[in-house]
Amino acid sequence: MGFKCGIVGLPNVGKSTLFNALTETQAAQAANYPFCTIEPNVGKVAVPDPRIDTIAEIAGSAQKIETQLEFVDIAGLVKGASKGEGLGNQFLANIREVDAIVHVLRCFEDDDIQHVDNRIDPITDAETVETELLLADLESVEKRVENAKRRATGGDKQAKAIASVLGQALELLKDGKPARLTEPNDEEEARLFREAQLLTAKPVLYVCNVDEASAADGNEHSARVFEKAKAEGAEAVVISAAIEAEIITMDPEDRPEFLADLGLDETGLARVIRAGYQLLDLITFFTAGPKESRAWTVARNAKAPQAAGVIHTDFERGFICAETIGYDDYISLGGEAGARDAGKLRQEGKDYTVTDGDVMLFKFNA
Fold first, then answer.
1. What are the residues facing 137 on neighbouring strands?
2. Which DSSP letter does residue 39 get?
3. What is the C-alpha to C-alpha distance for residues 335 and 290, in angstroms, rounded to an integer?
């Protein structure tokens, strides 16, 4: 089960620099001109979670493996993308394939780095990208609703549901609002809405790329972005991509002191990764043993067989039960043996909803 966050924004706002730092590679060419990223680069990053360290120590594991989140660096967008301007068609197609949008906004002044519109205004930049996504959705939804209404008159129940849920989305789009504000009437409409893969239905995280001096507290540009995010029910974080790019070249032992000198408790990348994880409404469960302790990702409200399937599809198909220990019990009772003796190891069946932090052992038919 993969979860992808697409990094988007106008050209020269720091997307590729952020991606390079996230993945600790130079896979994305960062250059001072538009469209230096032609094909989307994909990188997997570990999700910071100190719980895996504690579990591994208690289990005496030979190694520990963090869960991962996938980031996709997508080519810069320009006005007219919804009509194919610049790399518009490719840009929109790439966004359609991701689960959430990480929208990088330029919140720094630098005369040496050109802005595509020769001005620094993150709100206008955000609206430029949002407008192109909205226009692309509007054109797509109008056609789908018209077609669904025709089929619904012939008694097609699914077409009626599509006309209902996408009809609501269409009205929002006409009002200049994102499709994510749509409220399906039931689970069937919710499923059909998800399958529509509308660009403005995807959750958004605004990343305010600031100068080094503003890395700790942000600046007036980022403050405006945070106001926008709050009004939309979206998320926002402050990061200095330039600082993050410098950090990854340093010896890990030197990083804490460097961050402290800048007034930072952690890297901006850690904040971005965690925010992306939360944006997708994901939770973590663990497996633990002498060979390895490992963190795994599932969507919130996933059932035990779905969690088993993340490890291997055979586990889900032949699922019998999941021996489950809550994280706090696992830690306080010193691991599996202590939890079992205290009656805190539970046998959970197919209807069990996985809780964040569960330590699980799956039993299945081969």
1. none
2. S
3. 12
Distance CA 15, CA 30 (A): 8
Structure tokens at 128: 């430029």
Give 56's contacts (C-beta < 8 A, 6+ positions apart).
63, 64, 288, 292, 293
Q: What share of the chain is helix, strand, coil (3-state, %, to 5)?
A: 45, 20, 35
Residues 6+ apart with CB under 8 A from 118: none
Cα 364 to Cα 101: distance, rounded to the nearest angstrom: 37
| Tokens of residue 139, six digits | 């054109």
pLDDT of residue 147: 93
Cβ atoms within 10 A of the Cβ of 356, count? 13
pLDDT tens digits along 76-129:
655 554 455 444 466 788 888 898 999 999 998 876 665 555 678 999 999 888
Task: Return the number of other C-beta atoms located less than 10 Å from residue 140's C-beta.
Answer: 20
Strand, helix or coil for residue 261:
helix
Long-range contacts of 308-317 (CB under 8 A, 24+ apart): 308/362, 308/364, 309/1, 310/1, 311/287, 311/362, 314/364, 314/366, 315/362, 315/364, 317/364
Instruction: Say which residue the tokens 């038919």 belong to.
Output: 365
Contact yes or no for 358/336 (Cβ under 8 A): no
Whole-angstrom Cα distance, residue 290 to residue 236? Answer: 39
* Token digits of residue 163: 């006309």
> How many other CB atoms sit within 10 Å of the CB of residue 216?
14
- Which token pair is 355? 């809780």
- Give the 3-state secondary structure of 229-255: HHHHCCEEEEECHHHHHHHCCCCHHHH
